[in-house]
Amino acid sequence: MNKERFEAFTDAVIAIIMTILVLDIHLPTDDHSMRAIIAIAPSFLAYIVSFTILAVMWVNHHNLFLHVKTVNHKILYTNIFLLFWATLLPATTATAWFGSDIYSSTAAWLYAVNVIVYNISFSMVRNEVLKINDRLKHLYITEIASLILNIIALFIVFFWPPFIMISLLMDILLWSIQPVVRHKG
Q1: Where are the alpha helices (H) located in 24-156, listed in sequence order?
Q2: Which of 36, 52, 59, 101 could form a disulfide with 31 if both were Cys (CB 3.0 to 4.6 A apart)?
Q3: pLDDT digits (tens, 9 = 90+) for 46-79
Q4: Full-model pTM
Q5: CA distances from 78 to 82, 118, 129 (A)
Q6: Residue 128 near residue 74, CB atoms below 8 Å
C-alpha cells in the first residue's frame, strides 16, 4: 500500500477523534457566570489532557513512519487496531464519562484500561515497523516506561480516581521527551 494514503487515513481518523472530544463539553446556555464555568472545569481539563494525548500520539506516529518507505498488511491491521483504541478515548475518557465525574473509580479505571490497551497496540505497530526498519529500537524503552506508569495508575485510581489525570500528564511528558531519529533522505 502507498505509505502516503496510509498516513492520510491515520491523520484523518485522529483529527476526527480530536474533534469529537470537544463535542461532549456543553457550556450552559442559561447561566453565563463564573460558577457555571467552574462547574464544567473537570470536563474541560479532561478534554485538554485527552486532546494532548492524541496530539502526542499523532506526533509519535508521524515520527515512527518517517522511516518507513512502504506499508505491509501487518502494519495496516495493527494500525487499525491502534486506531480502534484511540477512537474509544472520547467515550471512556475525559469529556464523556470520566470528565463528568472525576471521582468515579470505575470511570477512571476504564480510562486507564483504554490507555493501557492503546499502549500495547502502539507497541504492536512499532514491532511491525521494526521488522522492516530497526532504526527505531529506542522507542521500546519509552513504551515500557509508559505501560508501567499506566498499570500503576490503574491501581491507584481505585483509591484516588483523579490520579488518572496526573498519570496521563506524566505519560504525555514521557512521550514528548523521547529522542527522535532524524530522517535521512
Answers
A1: 34-39, 41-65, 73-87, 89-92, 105-132, 139-156
A2: 36
A3: 788 788 888 888 988 888 888 788 889 999 999 9
A4: 0.73
A5: 6, 11, 10
A6: yes
